[in-house]
Amino acid sequence: MKYMRLGQSDLLVPRLALGCMRMSALSLTEAKQVIQQCLDLGINFFDHADIYGKGQSERIFGQAIKELGLEREQVIIQSKCGIRPGFFDFSKEHILAAVDGILERLQTDYLDLLVLHRPDTLWEPEEVAAAFSSLKEQGKVRHFGLSNVNRYQMELLQAYWQEPLLVNQLQVSLVHTPMIDAGLQVNMLTEGGLNRDGGILDYCRLRGVTIQAWSPFMIDLAQGTFFDHPDYPELNHVLAELADSKGVSVEAIATAFLLRHPAQMQVLVGSMNPDRLQKIAAASQVELSRQEWYRLYLSAGKELP
Ligand SMILES: NC(=O)c1ccc[n+]([C@@H]2O[C@H](COP(=O)([O-])OP(=O)(O)OC[C@H]3O[C@@H](n4cnc5c(N)ncnc54)[C@H](OP(=O)(O)O)[C@@H]3O)[C@@H](O)[C@H]2O)c1
Questions:
Q1: Which option is the CATH number for 172-305: 3.40.50.980, 3.40.50.12280, 3.40.50.150, 3.20.20.100?
Q2: Considering only CA atoms, which residue is closest to atom 5 of ligand 1?
Q3: Distance, CA 93 to ligand 1 centroid (Å)?
Q4: Among 74, 103, 145, 207, which is least packed by CB within 10 angstroms?
Q5: What is the pLDDT of residues 99-139, one digit of tens each?
Q6: 111 touches 132 (CB < 8 A)
């Protein structure tokens, strides 16, 4: 596994992290196997949210960590809050209450990172900053980040919260690249040229914010992953050819595509299958040339000017 500094912090983190959204479906024994596999592969960073499995993902993870006999410092735990049934809530009251629930379910005293899950248009950034201050003072949260936000939303909060936000969690995969497309088709009247995020990719690079790529293999929930998907024959052909030539799996190549970008993204992998996790982790050994990267990009149906 390769490691990097998260955002502008000193926190050393693996390039791949386990997204625990689907952990609620596992038995305790299976959860322990998945966590142990991650640790064996050098993946000691785990992403949660209070809503995953209505809290069950955090609950099972907390119990698994306890039964595995792990020290708290052996794992880096991030969780998210701010999504409630039918609405978004970045109020101070809700953030503080949500963190107490998260800590209880995870059976821990602190989070390494708290991330606000999806922007609440009714938010007051000074209220969020006050919530962050209180959580930090109480030792409940060490660092903070945002998710699914644009440049101005990050700047708005940074006008009130003085510490650097470390991460922005965004959907990025071989088949979901609007933030990359827009930068390749500047000022063009094309679909790809639409700037949907205010230039978030370059903004994060400029400010040293780590983009955490979510759903690295999924088309969407209904269609599943792009592996062997009939809509992506060329992509699967190129994935297979590169996997063969480099002696790794197609999953490793698809992951390496994200790791190769100089934005230094951290990839949130959601598989709960220990064998797949092993195949995916091999991505950290893969070197993709510039030409290979563009070939993959184009094979997913993208265009260059
Ligand atoms: N901030 C946000 O709004 C947001 C939104 C969504 C997700 N996330 C985070 O991102 C993490 C990853 O998201 P995700 O689970 O959608 O991502 P993913 O890694 O793209 O997808 C994983 C899913 O694909 C399945 N799968 C089928 N074939 C696969 C293959 N060959 N290789 C790998 N997986 C395969 C996995 O099943 P198996 O388990 O059987 O392998 C699993 O159900 C989540 O756990 C969560 O932490 C954040």
A1: 3.20.20.100
A2: 214
A3: 31
A4: 74
A5: 999 999 999 999 999 999 999 999 999 999 999 999 999 99
A6: no
